[in-house]
Structure formats: C-alpha cells, structure tokens
Write a structure and sequence with these properties.
Blueprint (H helix, E strand, L loop, with lengths): L5 H9 L8 H9 L6 H21 L1 H11 L3
Length: about 70
C-alpha cells in the first residue's frame, strides 16, 4: 500500500461513492485496476491540472492585489 498524504486522506474517507469522488481520488482508483489505460489516466490528469491553472491565471491580479494589500513583504 502506498503512503497517503493527509490532504488525500480526507476526500478518500468522505467520497466513498464512485459518483461523488473528487478528481485525484478517482484517478487513484483508476490506477488500482488490473488493466490500466495510461492514455486515459494521463489525459484526466492533464485536465485536472489545467483547469485550476487557468482559473489561477485568470484571477492572478486579484491574488497579487490581496497579497500587496495585506502588508506582507
């Protein structure tokens, strides 16, 4: 059994039904099957990575304004 990160453990415990699992948990269950379709697994990993990255890039100015407004150096 692989070592689980604590940020991974809570969604694993809460999302017990397959239709209510978060993306990384669903990828982990896909990887645990007997035959793994690596193309499908990698495509899902890219989609799960690109979407938050696009949101971050779109809202980047708000992140930088909030950091600049907080007074942290």
């Amino acid at each position: 059994m692989a070592v689980l990160h604590m940020g991974y453990m809570w969604p694993l415990l809460v999302g017990t039904e397959p239709d209510k699992q978060l993306g990384p948990i669903a990828l982990g269950t896909l990887q645990g099957q007997m035959v793994v379709d690596y193309g499908q697994l990698f495509a899902a990993a890219v989609v799960l990575t690109v979407i938050p990255l696009l949101v971050l890039l779109r809202l980047q100015r708000y992140f930088t304004q909030s950091i600049a407004g907080s007074g942290l150096k």
